[in-house]
Amino acid sequence: MKLVFLWLLLFVFTFSATTFGALNKTPRLSLINRSLKDPNAVSATVSKDLQVFFYNQTLDHFNFNPESYATFPQRYFINFKWWGGAKTHAPIIVYLGAEGPIDRDIEILGFFTENAPGFNALLVYIEHRFYGESNPVESSGDPDSVEAMAKSVKNETLRGYFNSAQALADYAEILVHLKKKLHAHKSPIIVVGGSYGGMLASWFRLKYPHIALGALASSAPILYFNNLTPQDGYYSIVTKDFKEASVNCYNTIKKSWNEIDRVASMPEGLAILSQKFKTCSPLKDSFELTDFLNSMYAGAAQYNAPPKYPTTRICNGIDEASNAPDILDRIFAGVVAYQPNKTCYNMTSEVSQTSIGWQWQVCSEMVIPIGITSNVSMFPSSPYNVQEFIDDCKKMVLEDISNSILAVKTTEGSHCLDILNSKKTDPDWLIKQRTEEVNIISRWLRKYYRNLGVSKE
Amino acid sequence: MKLVFLWLLLFVFTFSATTFGALNKTPRLSLINRSLKDPNAVSATVSKDLQVFFYNQTLDHFNFNPESYATFPQRYFINFKWWGGAKTHAPIIVYLGAEGPIDRDIEILGFFTENAPGFNALLVYIEHRFYGESNPVESSGDPDSVEAMAKSVKNETLRGYFNSAQALADYAEILVHLKKKLHAHKSPIIVVGGSYGGMLASWFRLKYPHIALGALASSAPILYFNNLTPQDGYYSIVTKDFKEASVNCYNTIKKSWNEIDRVASMPEGLAILSQKFKTCSPLKDSFELTDFLNSMYAGAAQYNAPPKYPTTRICNGIDEASNAPDILDRIFAGVVAYQPNKTCYNMTSEVSQTSIGWQWQVCSEMVIPIGITSNVSMFPSSPYNVQEFIDDCKKMVLEDISNSILAVKTTEGSHCLDILNSKKTDPDWLIKQRTEEVNIISRWLRKYYRNLGVSKE
Fold first, then answer.
1. Where is the signal peptide (chains A, B) (predicted)?
2. Do the Cβ atoms of A69 and A335 come closer than 8 Å?
């Protein structure tokens, strides 16, 4: 059940909308695994104090072309409930939206509502450009509109402005505007993000140090770019998680891929596989099945949150079926354990704003090389197609980068769990992790107010 | 002869290509006052080791539009003569080109060639995009081509990419490329710039801290933007310089503007003024004369370098003519003292790459509000047209901004003189200023190599 969870530097992706084994894998970096809802979560305090605003955002922050001056409405939310106010220079905690509509994130980000009272903090949530209702293409008012996203990434010129540098500049512009509007010139700003949003938070502190006093980057794979982290990083940890859950489970999964290929190559093989795995529609290619299984294993490891620990659940299913002679029946028992009570299993990836938008971001900018080359991987070999070998393995060891860039390590963990709503069932390490993060931010703020007192007042 | 010279934060502009009194004044920020050549300068050691290169530069670093991927050749120079080499991780000192062709800058930047031996440093000089031979418009091969610049700023789309954020990203890309090419991954980089180039150096260290270990910003008015520095800043120091040179001189100049206006309004007034000031062609407007005089006074103060101290020279001319009954004859005596032995004086601004290019940069981005509102100014009132008053007068007092942002102050000074070629006649304060700058950089490098030794080797 234990896994090495490297906070800040974790290899935190699942695949979607691509076939397993393809070279251009598409990592997805959401806060939560949307395929598995958890009804046990304590509901966040989304109060009437939460107000929605739209900022008239600049399309292109970096050039002075005629089209650069175009604007679009960017959505953000403010929760005033706990704010100590501008007069006391009370802090502002800002969530930097990531690759999806911001609505659901607000509900589950317990870190904000749980810590705002202690910090007397204003809470600000800003939606990432092109997602939700912050799409430069005329919005239908539906924050989940797949059509608006599809339209904007088809637009060769418009999509050029859909990138992280522009998103960071958006956040900077809104925050400068907000501090002015609220007369909160001396209120320190802490930016927070999860996964891709965590990378944005790190980069924001780097590029806009005059705006953000500090950044909390939850599960942000900031070093998973070329030449910094080995391509096997992500899947080696998924494999490790399963091996730690059960060696028998690991061996079963490792052997299963060849068996799927063998059956698929038989006459009526796809029909046999469709029947065995209760697919909602007949398989057109065995890739559909292997991609489904790959996503399930990766998602279980990435979001291996207490109290359910999905890797353990899958392995329990597989291990309990160890008497079944067909290895594929054992694998299917794992599927059922993970997602029980389903009449059929949908093997085709759902198309969403996130799958379309993130695909563009991955193809244009967020080139995160993930591959599988290791013999001990429980996944079949699938090397990432890069010319140069990746040497900086030491980067995988997470250490504090400096006195001011702090790494909060835990031996267990689940993707972005630290900033989500706390639960009664939270284990000690998670409580400790959250406390440590809050303590670090408290130190930043204490130092800030101490300096403010000495030099300005 | 004394003037308060605020290194790092000085108000360091002359006007060009605009009429005096116009609201949209165009500051120019060159290293030297090109209207006055100084043959006494010790020639820089431009050796055969200086090689020219062209980098295939990305037009748009911040977007992924089809045209973003366009490239243009960007010129840079490397001087290998004194470099200790990649194996010893010897440092790289980089000049960030500013608003003009880089050729002449290289010749006069004594700071580089004089300190390279002591630092065992590689010297790199990178030309700013759109200037010299680094213009995305097809170049004629003439680095001073006014036509190429005029063409590019007329191109609505192309000129959009002519800005500081893109220029900084250019430098980052070339430096990353260079370190790779030279296998100099552990060679620390110090960036240096003067005036606008000094602002670029400051901003480069801020935005690319992973590339530059430190920055030397010579005479860089980084805080002369809206709400940070009073609009009178620049001209109040020009006035102060002249008052310190001679109170009589100051009073004479202060009174002269009304007299020019009075004569200009007379019948044949412009002809009288043209004759009195020996203009090369008849004045079409008295603005031509007042702009000429304004530029002369401002240039003299901004580039008030030893051993000649042009403010003193002008004032000596004015004071020695104090018996002349007509105040305009006294003013003209100052002109002659400043530029002796001329058969006539050219009152019209010369059009150059810099005047055209910098005009675009000022109009699109570098909005530096300079105005004259003070009663004690020796210049006529000419308020900058901004709505809000500028309050942060304390910013005019130069202090170290932090332990790592150091201000090197001198009570005397001349624009960018610290990084230009040293001369035998250099006064003590200038030698001391240069020594202090070199010492600071030495400390950065010592600390860098100490850390490198501990953690990496």
1. 1-21
2. no
- Tell me what pLDDT residue A14 has: 31
A64, A161, A207: residue with CB nearest B159: A64
ipTM of the complex: 0.72
| Highest mean pLDDT pick, A13-22, B99-108, B167-176 | B167-176
Helix (H, G, I), strand (E, B) or coil at A227: coil
How many angstroms separate the CA atoms of B249 and B323, rounded? 13
Helix residue ranges per DSSP H, A282-419: 286-302, 310-320, 327-338, 353-364
A residues 193-222 lying closer than 8 A (beta carbon) to B: 206-207, 209
The 10s digit of each residue's pLDDT in B410-437 is: 766 677 777 777 788 888 888 888 887 8
Whether omega for the bond prior to residue B383 falls within 30 degrees of 0, making it cis, is no
B63:A365 CB<8 A? no
Q: What contacts B361, CB < 8 A, 6 or more positions away?
A: B99, B162, B163, B164, B196
Task: For residue B363, give the chain A residue with the closest CA.
Answer: A64
Contacts of A125 (CB under 8 A, 6+ apart): A76, A77, A78, A79, A94, A95, A97, A102, A105, A106, A109, A112
Residue A388: the pLDDT is: 33
How far out from the chain centre does Cα A197 lie? Answer: 7
* Coil vs helix vs strand at B437: helix
Contacts of A395 (CB under 8 A, 6+ apart): A9, A223, A228, A229
Place of tokens 């250490």: A399
CA distances from A325 to A321, A337, B102 (A): 9, 18, 77
**Cα–Cα distance measured from residue A339 to residue A317, given in angstroms and rounded to the nearest whole number:** 11
CATH classification of A50-220+427-456 is 3.40.50.300, yes or no?
no
